[in-house]
Give the backbone structure.
Amino acid sequence: MAQPPLSHQIRLLESELDVALFDRTTRRVSLTPAGRLLQDEARRLLVAADSVERAMAEHRSGAGGVLRLGFVDSSAYEVMPSFLRAYRRRWPGVDHQLHSMSSDEQYEALLGGDIDVGINRALGDRPDLRSVPFLRERLHVAVEPGHPLAGHKTTSIARLAGEPLIGFDRRVSPTLHAELAALFAGEGVAYDPIIEATEYTTILGLVAAGQGLAVVPSAVRTFARPDVHYAELRDRAAVVSLVMSARLDERLRLVDHAFELVAELF
């Protein structure tokens, strides 16, 4: 910038701030105390502006930003650790906000804009969501060591008829409850847990205490307890899927990266 317009801009700034920024003599120009203060603040502002610009560029490319992720409790044992480890290794500039919630809670959170992506089990075909199944797991029954099934590697849904069951709270996850009820009904058995909880750690604790049996996805077996035994349900339909979901109109590159990653990992 040439000297005349620069001097003019300085005078306008001094007028706006109502303070002198420079001491001017015929030989030299130096900053006043107010000028030195403004210089320090201006440098901080420039650094902040540069950081904002860089953050926005990373956000657009998916190399930075915050990914808000909802996940069902049963995915916390195997899937979530593997997924987060791989995501952070590939995109270390991305932060994660993690929210443990049921599949039904994820649906509401996705539509409400509270999370960006969800890992769930039973959302079904929702026209307002982009959902991709990425992992199928066999169902197992968890029993305490003194139960007759404790010595079995496999069993059937029919064998569970009349057994007291412990399940996931149907008020929190009605879709999952309905899916299991339909699975049992297909084998002529009623699925009506006598105790319901919202975390598998609690459910397994109740099993270990001899309060009943629980039907759980295979990943839950990772939470190994010496007082809980698992027998695989050999019924052909005793399978559940893990699904990644996002809003159909979601355009975040962070979300695209998540879908790409689960397709590679599982």
In short: The chain has a mean pLDDT of 89. The CA atoms of residues 49 and 91 lie 23 Å apart. The chain has seven helices and twelve strands. The two ends are 58 Å apart (CA to CA).
